[in-house]
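The following record pairs a protein chain with its ligand, 5-O-phosphono-beta-D-ribofuranosylamine.
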Amino acid sequence: MKVGVLISGRGSNLKSLIDACASSDFPAEIVLVISNKADAGGLEIARAAGIATRVVSHKDFASREAFDREMTAALKNADVDFVCSAGFMRILSDEFVETWRDRQLNIHPSLLPSFKGLNVYARAIEAGCKVSGCTVHFVRAAMDEGPIVAQTAVPILEDDTPDTLAARILTEEHKLYPHALRLVAEGRVTIVDERCVIRD
Ligand code: GRF
């Protein structure tokens, strides 16, 4: 499976996917990394791994649709058949979501459907939750919604700050995203009534 990864920043999840793809039995390869920001740290990570990169700045386009069409053109040009969003901080147009329907994953640092959106760590602590975690899901038009492929729960400790919780969740994200991508790439995930059924 040829994968394109969308990023906006640091790229630590991108790195976990690159590392997983480097193992010879991993059923996917990353052929393109697109960032909407030229200074995203993840671009350096991709270049160091010899992966093609493209900067598509949303500021260069008059509309969300035009920006998204340019990304789709770049992905198709690279023969991408599956998209992974990894810290990509733009809302996607309905058109982009439909073009890549059931062929796009996202990772989010909470146990969805709780805590969609931003400031998830502070909100989970504030709510007095005893666990949070991370979720990999198929992308749908509504932000942070879509069939859930895999989740990991992470305890929230009495003395957690948003930063300490974020760090503990991030460690789990780096295991979860490669795991979820492998399940999908091996053809073990079927979407039934907007729920993922995992074979074996
Ligand atoms: C991760 O916490 C991810 O779950 C969220 O944005 C963050 C991206 O971090 N969507 P990185 O760029 O992968 O290091």
